[in-house]
Amino acid sequence: MPETPFYGGQAVIEGVMLRGPELMAIAVRRPDGQVVVHRESLVAAADRWPGWRWPFLRGVIALADSLSLGVRALLISAEVAGEEKMEPHQGVLVVATAVALAVGLFILLPTVITGFLGRWLPAGVRHLVEGMVRLGLLVGYIATIARLPDVRRVFAYHGAEHRVIHLFEGGGRRDVDQARAWPLLHPRCGTSFLLFVVAISVLVFAFFGWPVLWQRVALRLVLLPVVAGIAYEAIRLSGRSRHPLVKAMAVPGLALQRLTTREPSDDQVEVALAALEAVLPPCYNPAEDNP
């Protein structure tokens, strides 16, 4: 029996992007209050990538695919929301800068700090300390940007996205009142994925010892796709399984999501519902009319 397809997405500027196997939809509220929906067809990843069905490799493919669609969604939402239009090459530059900063902050800096502390640390605990430093930087970064008003608004749309995904998966009537009853946190969130990456990186990097700095940095960059592939399988499992151990594994990621989600307004949930309606196949007719 084929697996039930996942629906997911992300918050964008004044809106929500949702995607399924065949469609992507971006719903954005314009400055005049109107909700504008952009929808486009997608070619299934399994049709574009021969290795999609291979465990672990599909995680790397999914990460690259999500990054590409996420950037596109942000550019579209910025234009609809009344921000200055950004050309594609400008978007590429912004993403490249963000990736470089992320590598510097979450790959280079933790191993440099741990290398400095390493002269006083037993060799066996250096990787664990590096993971703790990486986690501390991640949590500190999220907590800092969450104080910015514009980011808090995006995080509220993030909460709206989670609620409508829960609503869809639960089979409820798709309206604001029903969505309001569902949680802000979701086990398949990208925030949880980041936490899995941090935890799994400790185990993977430990297999390669503690060489000099440049070798450590090179190894971490080369092994990042491996870590991402394992993390993808872990978060995929946490989204499907109801086993107590799997549910316990998801708890830290759900806790971290409390930093990246905010209580959405009804208007924001309305936008997320518009994205959901647009991304579902035209023939979709679930038993969601049950009260």
**Roughly what is the average pLDDT, rounded to an integer?**
86
- Given the C-alpha coordinates, what overall shape results? globular
The span between the termini is 29 Å
Helix-and-strand structural type: alpha+beta
Percent in helix: 55-70%
Structurally, how many domains make up the residues? 1
The spatial strand order of the largest sheet comes to: 1-2-3-4
Radius of gyration: 20 Å
Q: Helical element count? A: 10
Q: How many β-strand stretches?
A: 4
Explain the overall architecture.
This protein has 291 residues and is an alpha+beta fold. It has one domain (8-279). Helices cover 62% and strands 8% of the residues. The chain contains ten helices and four strands, in the order ββββαααααααααα. It has helices at residues 45-48, 57-80, 88-117, 126-145, 149-170, 176-180, 190-206, 213-240, 244-260, 266-279; strands spanning 8-12, 15-19, 23-29, 35-41. The protein has a four-stranded antiparallel sheet with strand order 1-2-3-4. A hairpin with a 3-residue loop joins strand 2 and strand 3. Helix 4 runs antiparallel to helix 7 and helix 7 packs across helix 8 (213-240). The chain is globular, with a radius of gyration of 20 Å. The two termini are 29 Å apart. The model is unreliable at 287-291 (pLDDT under 50).
